[in-house]
Amino acid sequence: MPRDGLLTRNQIVAAADELFYSQGLHAVSVDAIAEKAGVTKKTFYYHFKSKDDLIGCYLDARDRPTVDRFKEWAGSEGSVADRMTRFFSKLGRSSQGPRWNGCGFLRAAAELADKRGHPALTAARTHKARCEQWLFEMVNEEDHSDAETIARALMVLIDGAVSQILIHRDAKYATSAGLAARSLLSRGRR
Amino acid sequence: MPRDGLLTRNQIVAAADELFYSQGLHAVSVDAIAEKAGVTKKTFYYHFKSKDDLIGCYLDARDRPTVDRFKEWAGSEGSVADRMTRFFSKLGRSSQGPRWNGCGFLRAAAELADKRGHPALTAARTHKARCEQWLFEMVNEEDHSDAETIARALMVLIDGAVSQILIHRDAKYATSAGLAARSLLSRGRR
DNA sequence: ACGTAAATTCACCGGTCAGTGTAGTTTCAC
DNA sequence: GTGAAACTACACTGACCGGTGAATTTACGT
Predict the structure, then answer these.
(1) Whose CA, among A18, A19, B4, B129, lies 20 to 30 Å from B68?
(2) Which of B101, B125, B173 sits opposite A168 (nearest CB)?
(3) Tell me: the pLDDT tens digits for B3-15?
(4) pTM more than 0.85
């Protein structure tokens, strides 16, 4: 009984998101995803040409919501230092939720580090570039010398904080990252 | 023909190190490791009780060499800011080698993020704590207020830089991390 | 009412996975 | 020279892997 094609496809991606994000890429089978989506494996392969294809789509689907959440965390009031302080504070809180497992893009890149042309690596790179672009625009509006370098350093702080929190399961690394961000932003003002 | 038991065990760990670090944990089979080590699978299971056991040993074996390399990169001359600048410069250079694939501990933690009691997570946590301890001692010798927070922030910068370089395959993130480290270290001097 | 394309199902494939069983071999310390 | 530790060889298990073939059901334009 054919349903709406796009709806089914989205259900599959939603199921993949839950499973991939919580358990990792290699640890989740196509069978498990198909079952969670309430679909046969053949239907899965009707919508996606391979598991790797799905992995790429899973990350693509995560891109916008993630960037939007980041923007929401930072807010739009105050200096960049204020906004980043808020951001890291919200990150710290969010990371204590029971389902938080770090950054899905970072974890995908970690699993597929040697698969140089993999669609997931492209998706992860694109997503990180979009985050960095957002930071760059924010920093560039204020008077900073070398906004590019500062935006890159802020990206380093974000992914570093996420990684440390994931390993230690301790939100205090978000606080330290916030401190580093404030130091960074208070120095190079033009 | 029995060799020295420890020698064989080390060969297996060495084979695991090469394969796990380059391809990831789930992507490498016990058969592949046994073959690379020049050992039958039965011998493998004589030395390790399971694949998960080996994964823990693989990370344990990486701990000291990694910390030693970090210390060597930083050197012992100059201020902490100088040493961290040197460190990030060396990290940037090293990351451009053809076999570099980020931090094995971080990548292991990324793959096993949901396996809460896994020996590999314990090993990764212990290793990161040792790195942080080294940074803390270094920072604490200089006159800084809140050396603990600064050491944590430096850890955030290191793992953040490694993550960003892994994703973009671009060493400039090490430079940005170095800049952030200098900002951080120039502010809180007592 | 009919044809057709999209969407879906069930059964199945060859291969690989972690791990075991059985049976025998080699070295070395005592 | 005996016994234990350290191995080899290799077949095997049962579960699961990604992916497929052939048939089927529905919606829709005509």
Answers:
(1) B4
(2) B125
(3) 666 789 999 999 9
(4) yes
